[in-house]
Design goal:
This protein is of the alpha/beta class. It has helices at residues 11-22, 48-51, 56-59, 64-69, 130-136, 153-164, 185-197, 244-248, 291-305, 369-381, 387-391, 399-402; strands spanning 3-7, 28-32, 72-75, 80-84, 89-92, 95-98, 101-104, 108-110, 124-126, 145-149, 168-173, 201-204, 208-214, 216-222, 227-229, 232-235, 239-241, 257-258, 270-272, 277-281, 284-286, 317-322, 325-331, 338-343, 350-356, 359-366. The strands form seven sheets. It has a five-stranded parallel β-sheet with strand order 3-2-1-7-19. A five-stranded parallel β-sheet has the order 9-16-10-11-12, with helices on one face. It has a five-stranded antiparallel β-sheet with strand order 22-23-26-25-24. It binds flavin-adenine dinucleotide.
Length: 403
């Protein structure tokens, strides 16, 4: 019976080992992770957990006993430092573990600011893992002054939490508008208004020149020459896929660890899934940074290790919680040329539908779960309703499926 070793005990790693066992895999399964906590969900780290409304145990994806009950060797606090593809072994500390199949679910690494602009001062945080959030928790008190660098989803979620906790929040975004990389101006406008209403000072088209402080950060100088006094800073300027191990092992890299449609890397005994993996998509390559992708791709790889031969077809969707607004996104908006706005019934509820010509690509839905669900279904079925029908609130959403 073959053995499977998984490096990275996060969302994808945990989903993969669970799927192996649920599918009747009887070989040896080892899951190695460098963090001390058993696999947990990251989304609440910038939402309810940061807000203090969610306990640690509720973050865990599965009870710790799940792993021993299912004969999964979960090794925490262990960092894999090398892979030997010829010998089919991995090294962690002074241990060597052999594999028949190896899976890389190493996730991604947050970008940090360079030391030359104060990135290593005390009080400068990123939001990637539990250690990061636990480290900033004592500073997150009413009246504290925080600078958030980056107006993407992580930065905006952190801003919502900070403002809800009574902090004085300044957010700088170097691009012309928040969410520029991922959303249409309509969605940016919606969230700018939302945050401004909650007292967040959003400064767009303005970068950080340098953080100021002697040991601990105390201020920041911005690209327009202005200065802000702060107690701490949160850096949310994106992530890079964790490919270092794969590179050292000589695997092909292409915006992440390069896999084929089965999830297999350039070494047929080594697979990859989740944030760290890029896969064939629409004639090019794709890589997604989301929970649904981590689960779906990991489960597919588990099945393929057992010989299923299934092709990965991502069904992209994502969500973000800010204040009392739930944003749900279906599809990928790359290449859109127009936006159709569909107001919802409740105050503040609306959906934006992204089209390329007559083809529906994606939907951003704010407190509009039905629009999200219908949009997601339509995109998965490859159906594109007439934009005029979408814009007409007299059209029942479900009727769009039949149109
Ligand atoms: C604050 C935050 C909020 C988010 N919000 C959302 C959201 O609302 N919706 C959504 O869909 N997605 C969200 N995401 C993204 C989502 O959490 C990730 O896409 C998902 O966790 C990816 O799963 P993964 O298993 O690929 O990586 P991870 O969950 O990051 O797991 C990778 C693990 O591998 C470990 N590792 C790496 N290298 C080694 C090594 N050499 N040896 C041992 N262990 C190693 C890492 O320590 C880590 O524990 C959010 C992410 C963050 C950080």
């Amino acid at each position: 019976m073959s053995s499977v070793v998984v490096i990275g005990a996060g969302q994808a790693g945990s989903s993969l080992v669970a799927k192996l066992r649920n599918s009747g895999f009887e070989g040896q399964v080892t899951l190695i992770g460098e963090e001390s906590a058993p696999p947990y969900q990251r989304p609440p780290l910038s939402k309810k957990y940061l807000l203090g409304e969610m306990d640690l145990e509720r973050l865990y994806l599965r009870p710790e006993s799940f792993y021993s009950d299912n004969d999964i060797d979960l090794r925490l606090n262990e960092t894999v430092t090398a892979i030997d593809p010829a010998a089919k072994t991995v090294t962690s500390g002074d241990q060597t573990v052999s594999y028949d199949h190896l899976v890389l679910t190493t996730g991604s690494t947050p970008r940090r600011l360079p030391a030359s602009i104060g990135g290593t001062l005390d009080g400068v945080h990123v939001v990637r893992d539990l250690r990061d959030v636990d480290a900033m928790a004592p500073a997150c008190v009413s009246g504290a002054r925080v600078l958030i660098i980056g107006g993407g989803y992580i930065g905006l979620e952190a801003a919502a939490v900070a403002s809800s906790k009574g902090m004085k929040v300044t957010l700088v975004e170097m691009a012309d508008r928040i969410l520029q990389r991922v959303a249409a101006p309509e969605t940016s406008d919606y969230f700018r208004d939302l945050h401004t209403t909650h007292g967040v000072d959003i400064r767009e088209g303005i970068g950080l020149e340098t953080l100021i402080g002697d040991g601990h950060v105390t201020g920041a100088r911005l690209s327009d020459g202005s200065e802000v006094e702060i107690d701490f800073a949160i850096v949310g300027v994106g992530i890079t896929p964790a490919t270092a191990l794969a590179e050292m092992a000589g695997l092909d890299i292409d915006n992440g660890i390069k896999t084929n449609e089965l999830g297999q890397t350039s070494d047929p005994s080594i697979w990859a899934a989740g944030d760290c993996a890029s896969f064939p998509h629409n004639g090019g390559r794709g890589r997604l940074e989301s929970v649904p992708n981590a689960i779906d791709m990991a489960e597919l790889v588990a099945e393929n290790i057992m010989g299923a031969g299934k092709t990965y077809t991502p069904k992209p969707w994502f969500w973000s919680d800010q204040y009392d607004i739930k944003l749900q996104i279906a599809g990928l908006n790359t290449g859109y040329d127009r936006i159709i706005t569909r107001p919802g019934d409740a105050d503040g509820s609306v959906s934006f539908w992204y089209y390329a010509g007559d083809r529906l690509l994606a939907v951003d839905a704010m407190n509009e779960a039905r629009a999200f669900m219908v949009g997601k279904r339509l995109i998965e079925m490859g159906k594109s309703p007439d934009p005029a029908l979408v814009a007409d609130t007299g059209t029942d959403l479900k009727a769009l499926m039949k149109a």
